[in-house]
Amino acid sequence: MEDLLKIIKTRRSIRRYKKKDVPDELLEKIIEAGRWSPSGDNGQPWRFIIVRDPETKKALGKIAAEGSGRRFTAEYFTGRMQERFEGLKDLDKKDKAYKKLTSGEVSSFLANAPVIIIVCAKLDVWDVPYDSAMATQNMVLMAHALGLGSCVVVAPVSDMRDDIKVMKLLKIPHGYKVIAPLAIGYPDESPNPRPRLSLKEIIFYEEFERRREK
Amino acid sequence: MTDSLYFRDIVSSLEKVLYYERGSGSYFRATMIGKDFIDRERIEGKTSEEVIESCIKVMREKNIVKDASYQKDKNGTLFTFEINGCIHLPVEEKLKEEGVPTYICPPMNMTLCKVREMMDLAVEIADITVNQDDGRCIIRVVVFEQK
Hints:
The complex is a heterodimer of chains A (214) and B (147).
Chain A (H helix, E strand, L loop, with lengths): L1 H9 L13 H12 L10 E6 L2 H24 L2 H5 L6 H12 L2 H4 L6 E8 L5 H18 L3 E4 L7 H10 L6 E10 L13 H4 L12
Antiparallel strand pairs in A: 1-2, 2-4, 3-4
Helix pairs in contact in A: 2-7, 3-8
Chain B lengths: L4 H18 L3 H4 L5 H5 L8 H14 L5 E6 L5 E7 L4 H9 L8 H14 L2 E10 L4 E9 L3
Antiparallel strand pairs in B: 1-2, 2-4, 3-4
């Protein structure tokens, strides 16, 4: 049990990968983990596209960068981004962060992932978002357990304007949708953990906001 | 259209459903709402300003808005629009009562869709402020060349 929690707690979103291909057998193990996710009414909406073609990856990276770039440019010009980074005192770092976000570079790394698994879902199923999200989580944990890095990159599919481009690029038919591209490869970075809310902040007893008395 | 209670209730309920599914991300799912309407209209212009004016003219003629104007910041990237008497105000009023923030502005979507399509520029709504008291909305958007 401790091993599972260790895998969960040491997983990171990896955005930089070694230039080394991921064997099919490992990808199959990752997808096998997704396939065994809980599924309402056993609908199993998930379908997976394994993308290795450099041109397709480049196109996905471009769509991702455009989506993120638009969103963060809007945040920058209204001053909200500056508020978000108020705590960061190093001006050079701050400037780099602004550029990384507004240029969309924060998401364009998708093009450089050795493999992208596109998690898709069939829509004539009751619990599409729940089933698909659980499958994706199983997959990122399995990737990590296998010594691989992964990152769920929603940038190319969160906005409808980009989503339709991805659907067209990957020839996804009506009746299906893309949940998220999952970048996979051997990690070439080891990011620190991101801060998490404490258990005390997120657990209530019997009703919302009711906390346990000391 | 949305001035009838029936359509106000239906549209606001749909917006509420989407909001409860996607939270703040609902905005990104709704960026093309209005596109079908404006695609049927003749929009002209060789600059983003001319395209915007052409869209405003159509929306005025079709009674989508009473009036609209905008200002650009010194960088020419941030545009602040003021829309008066939008047909969607009753929908937004109901949503506000139900605790759902405004995340869709169909007139702005229509305008930005055309600027994007005709001028090949990146566009994004930054924020929407609805003032029900005087029927005036302020929408800040960015329009820029994406490298």
